[in-house]
Amino acid sequence: MVFSSKGHPMIARVAGGLVLASILVAGAAAAEVGGHAVQRFAILGASASAGFSVVVNGPGGDGPGIASARLGTVLRAIVDPPPCVVADWSTASFFSDPCTTGPHAVERCIRGEPDAVIAVDFLFWFAYGAFTADGRRISQEADRDALFELGLSLLDQVEAPLLVGDLPDMRGANPRVLNRWSVPEPETLERLNRRLRKWAADRPKVRIFPLAERTREAMTATFGGDPAPTDPPEAGQVPESTNPPESAVDSAGPKRPPLVQRDRLHPTFEGLFDLTAAVAVAMADLPGFDRIAAEIDSLGHNAMLEQVRARLLELDRPPPAGSPNSKSSP
Fold first, then answer.
1. What is the tally of structural domains in the chain?
2. Model's pTM, two decimal places?
3. What's the rounded Cα separation, in Å, for the pair 297 and 277?
4. Which residue of 41, 64, 228, 272 sits 20 to 30 Å from the alpha carbon of 242, by its own alpha carbon?
5. Of 202, 198, 182, 201, nearest to 190 (Cα)?
6. What separation in angstroms does the CA of 9 have from each of 5, 160, 260?
7. Is there a domain that residue 4 lies in?
8. What is the tens place of the pLDDT at every residue in 38-63?
9. Could you give the C-alpha distances from 36 to 33, 81, 254, in angstroms and in order?
10. SS3 of 162, please?
11. Is 1 a member of any domain?
12. By three-state DSSP, how is residue 43 classified?
């Protein structure tokens, strides 16, 4: 689930330039944590990985949203101290020029010599979008094949173990944030996903993350049988793209928090946590990921979600007045 809309009010803040945020977070210099070697992970991707419009609220969903979250920050918040450092090359502006953003991100990624690479939504804009690799407007579905091959050729440069997501069907996304002419036909998605599976089968270090399946599940859990939006908002109407819907009702139990934002495209904080946990499980046979997956299994999904929430809120909290890191300290 990623983002596209040249007219969306939020994107002006994101796409003012090429945003390739390298997050080498605290502890990067440590060689070991708890007797284990610190692993170097890298993230390649678009706005789902970059946590577009994800807001972390207080426990139980109460309180102001005082923190944001990305896949990389959630990954590091699961184990304390974290068993990894993360070079995060994901960006919400990927959609604006994937043929420039993608190569730059991959170049910086491989320069850091990561131990593993997460690319769950990297290929999205090498299938979606309105322009070909040479800048022409897509006039037929076959034009998307060459664009997709470019994305695969970039990932071919990664020598570390690589988790790459397949292509979800986002026809239900709000057309205000994902233009209809940017959406591939279902047959095209099937063809490109077959190509991805064939490509991965020849590369032992590559494993496919089932993003398409997880996206279907998240949409169903959040919206149930509600029809997808069919028309852009009327002129002057505030687009429903930055706030999550009300919690979905589970007939077998209490309300559950939504996993997808109102734009039917991006994950909420809870959805991002689910995505991150699934990534850790998919890579659990690798050092670093094994400890993250074991921590989730030990504590349980819901308890871990709240623990990660608390850690992210604590990290985002300003230091007390007068402390060495406070702006008000002398």
1. 1
2. 0.82
3. 10
4. 41
5. 198
6. 9, 37, 19
7. no
8. 999 999 999 999 999 998 987 655 55
9. 5, 11, 40
10. strand
11. no
12. strand
